[in-house]
Amino acid sequence: MRVGILGGGQLAQMIAQAGANLDMSFKFISPDPKACAAPYGEHICADYQDEQAYQQMLEWADVFTYEFESIPKSVVESLEKKLALLPSSKALNVAGDRLKEKRTFNGLGIPTANFAPVDSLESLQSAVEQIGLPAILKTRSEGYDGKGQAVLRDVSQLEAAWQSVGQVPCILESMVNFSREVSIIAARSKQGEIVYYPLTENHHREGILRLSLPLQNDPYQQQAEKLAKALLDELDYVGVIAVELFQVGESLVANEFAPRVHNSGHWTIEGAHTSQFENHLRAICGLPLGKTDAINSCAMVNIIGKLPREEDVAAIEGARFHDYSKDEKPGRKIGHITITSEGLSGEAFNANLKCILQLVGEDPELR
């Protein structure tokens, strides 16, 4: 099977790595000459609107997928008319616009924070009167890892916040008083079969995911699966999806969804019977979906900005080092470390996880 991927970053890299055992080959379109996925297939270094590059892909590929949401809408819709592109442009269009996303959730009966559209400083003032403070101003498109956002706690901050997000279409969301952040990752096949991974508890700092902990037999697993299923069926979705949720009291409130493999699912490479990356390929290529059970206790720690020494990671029992081959840069995800509990006591697993957190510059008590 020949898979064309829009994007050449670490998610494309890990998709291609998973495809090696499925006898698949890959081509990537990315304008980045240092695309870290390039060693795992053929890299077409071109802009995402380059028609000649897409013609090369169309003549070669059996199916298209993508690793991020900000692909030009016109490109996606044009490709979809000529070759299977999965997940579909419908899912991409909803996920790429926070206002559409929130309205889709609410239309399915999935609770969210209170929200209002913002298109000007005047409409921001009106939205604050409607939503109240504190609240978060977010750009409707783009923006991730805390970018394109401003926290508002006082009306005196409105003008500066509007300037800081670039005076582009936004959404104002009420602050959610949550007890924890979780995500549910699922894969849906072309036939509508759905498999779910264990609910994952996520810990952020400065808007960037730092630690993910899959939780076996979590009491909110079924509630999360029900919300994800409603969205998957509504979008007639094919591939892997991640739905980010807040736990508020005894209910789950939707934050956003990603129509792709997701950072909070990186633990599945070593920690699940079938990784999210392999199941994404299985879904879009029409293969049977793999088992999603966690093999044992597991955790994933992101490496932000600066890589630790590989030998220091190797010295921690149960740890696996994933280097994305990206240049070091403050605030940039350049790798991750997973740790599994195979052969370890619970006490030893927790101690080793603390060592990993400390190694990458995080608070060892982050959990």
In short:
By secondary structure, the protein is of the alpha+beta class. It folds into 3 domains: 84 residues, Rossmann fold (3-Layer(aba) Sandwich), CATH 3.40.50.20; 61 residues, 2-Layer Sandwich (Dna Ligase, domain 1); 180 residues, D-amino Acid Aminotransferase, Chain A, domain 1, CATH 3.30.470.20.
Report on the architecture of this protein:
β11 and β12 form a beta hairpin. It is built from twelve helices and 17 strands. α1 packs across α10 (276-284). It has three domains: 2-85, Rossmann fold (3-Layer(aba) Sandwich); 114-174, ATP-grasp fold, A domain (Dna Ligase, domain 1); 180-359, ATP-grasp fold, B domain (D-amino Acid Aminotransferase, Chain A, domain 1, 2-Layer Sandwich), CATH 3.30.470. With 367 residues, it is an alpha+beta fold. The chain has helices spanning 10-19, 51-60, 73-80, 89-95, 98-107, 121-131, 158-164, 221-234, 268-271, 276-284, 310-314, 346-359; strands at residues 2-6, 25-30, 42-45, 63-66, 115-118, 135-139, 149-152, 170-174, 180-188, 194-196, 200-205, 208-214, 239-248, 251-258, 298-304, 319-323, 333-340. The strands form three sheets. Strands 9, 10, 11, 12, 13, 14, 15, 16 and 17 form a nine-stranded antiparallel β-sheet that branches. A four-stranded parallel β-sheet has the order 3-2-1-4, sandwiched between helices. It has a four-stranded antiparallel β-sheet with strand order 5-8-6-7, sandwiched between helices.
